Amino acid sequence: MSFIKAIVAAGLVAASASAFSLPARAADITGAGATFPFPVYSKWADAYKKETGNSVNYQSIGSGAGIKQILAKTVTFGATDAPLKADKLDKDGLLQWPMVMGAIVPVVNVEGVTPGELVLSGELLGDIYLGKVTRWDDPAIAKLNPKLKLPSAPIAVVHRSDGSGTSFNFTNYLSKVNAEWKSKVGEGTAVEWPAGVGAKGNEGVSGNVGQTKNSIGYVEYAYAKQNKLTYAALINKAGKIVQPTVASFQAAAGNADWAHAPGYYVILTDQPGEASWPITAATFILMHKEPIDKTASAEAIKFFKWSFEKGGKMAEDLDYIPMPDQVLKQIEKTWTSEIKS
Amino acid sequence: MAVHGSAMEAAGRYDRTRALNAFKFSDTAFYWTTRVSAILVLVLLGGIIVSLIVGAWPAIMEFGSAFLTTQRWAPSADPPVLGALSPLYGTILTSVIAMTIAIPVGIGIAIFLTELCPLWARRPIGMAVELLAGIPSIIYGMWGFFVLGPFLANTVQPFFIDLFAGVPILGSIFGGPPSYLSLFNASLILAIMVLPFITAISRDVFATVPPVLKEAAYGVGCTTWEVVRHVVLPYTRVGVIGGVMLALGRALGETMAVTFIIGNSFRISPSIFAPGTTISAAIASEFAESDGLHQSSLMLLGLLLFVLTFVVLAAARLMLLRLEKKAGK
């Protein structure tokens, strides 16, 4: 009994302490959208609150839902992994910029294969997801992996069942490197998957691949790392075998031409460069140019500015890639010129 | 009553009408409160139907009846092609398999509990069944994913696949490759989930059979089986069917557990070991990220599920009416 009492007492003390220690604060910032950057956004929000006392409430409800929420003006900012095209932005009076970058990696669960050992090409990955290459001992896989002994077993393909920005970037990559994929399936947050089973969320896919023998899936890199999944190496546009590392993600990000993209519409898949990881993705923030709540909007910009200035290290700790400095300068210019306060 | 009585006495007999009027008022008030509550249900139901139709209207206009016969589900195609055949098939198939397993087992447990079970074991078994109903569906989903799925894929499915290999029809129904996430896995979880509905209701109605009827039957030399078959079941038919319908309604609409283990694939495969999808799983997976025609189609799927449930319940009512007529009631 005394144990329960102690817990209750501790809870009360904590609650009252936090109630009294809150400084007089400005408007709460609310945001909603993509799940892909959720770990880093929540880490930033946490640190930001500790430093300034202002809280940022981010709900990871998915890119499509994030776009819907910002259009409905129910949140201060929306977040999406599938950027909007410039004409769409203009039509709705929205402003868009990239916030942070990350990478998507193919993960496999094949006995005896260690992380980074299996090599796949984009075209082969497309054929597996098309259901054309169905066995691990297929000659096409053996050709790329002459030293690996792969089992004579069917490939269990895992994809996302929910609409997702991760799927958008993955299918965008497959469309770029596999002609049949482009004509039959195409790209999108939710596509008509020709093979495999669907799992919900990055965590669903990583759980499924971890659980199922001889399976293959794709997840945001942090999920592969946290769940200690076996990732595959990929052959990039330059024809080189690359491992998913922060260096290879940064190489892809460095090749992106942010300066000349209207509305920062850049998709980072299949970037040129010998060291580039081919399925790199940026995640974007959406805000109204003429916000209803100008205080909240200004507060949100303060938070993003703070994240750009101080959040780089935190992002890297979670295996995201901060935006390059020259892009940051450009984004800050966009803020001052385009958002009315 | 006592209060009213003494009030009337104090007022004298000429105030009798007034006292009666006071009763009349409270009576009318009571009548209307209950009536409004009952009507509220109809209004709510109507509101849900209307909002579903409004939400689904663009999809109805776009696809028409082809929606029911199209197997493709391609929201990102240009223009989008969306059809309900695969989720409809999955919904009906998983429910049918689940009920095929759950009805005999559920009624069996109920019969055992009321007729055969030693007294000391009744309470623990009865409580276990009720606890089964209390487990949140997401727990069933997780259990299906981590425990049942691997067991089925590694042990049960290979056995069935070997057993029926080469047999026509059965061979393709139980065709491989085994998968953790499949229609069969989902059906089995559904069967376990609806079991308590059937058992608890059947047990309760079996308990209402007048002992004198059963004793009379035993008295003329009936076996336990004959008593159950010819006395208990006919006497409680309506209640048992009610329980089965409640269970079927749950099986048709169950979402979370099914989404976890059915594999969410929009392809129709002859094998029950292949992944599939159901209406509610499709909606749960895709609704948050959908817009435009895609969202409208998901609303239409919801409307279809509504209609499907309605048809099933109406059919059950009709069946009961027929049975009652036959019985000459």
From TrEMBL, chain A:
Q: Name one Pfam family in it.
A: PBP_like_2
InterPro entries per the record?
ABC_phos-bd_PstS (IPR005673), PBP_domain (IPR024370), Phosphate-bind_PstS (IPR050962)
GO aspect biological process, one term:
phosphate ion transmembrane transport
Q: Where is the PBP domain?
A: 25-308
Which UniProt key words apply to this protein? Phosphate transport, Signal, Transport
What GO terms are given for molecular function? phosphate ion binding
Tell me the CDD domains matching this sequence: PBP2_PstS
GO (cellular component) term, any one:
ATP-binding cassette (ABC) transporter complex
Q: Which residues form the signal peptide?
A: 1-26
NCBIfam families referenced in this protein's UniProt entry, alphabetically: 3a0107s03 (TIGR00975), PRK10918.1 (NF008171)
Assembly and partners? The complex is composed of two ATP-binding proteins (PstB), two transmembrane proteins (PstC and PstA) and a solute-binding protein (PstS).
In UniProt terms, what function does this protein have?
Part of the ABC transporter complex PstSACB involved in phosphate import.
The family this protein is said to belong to: Belongs to the PstS family.
Q: What is this protein called?
A: Phosphate-binding protein PstS
- The scientific name of the source species is Nitrobacter hamburgensis (strain DSM 10229 / NCIMB 13809 / X14)
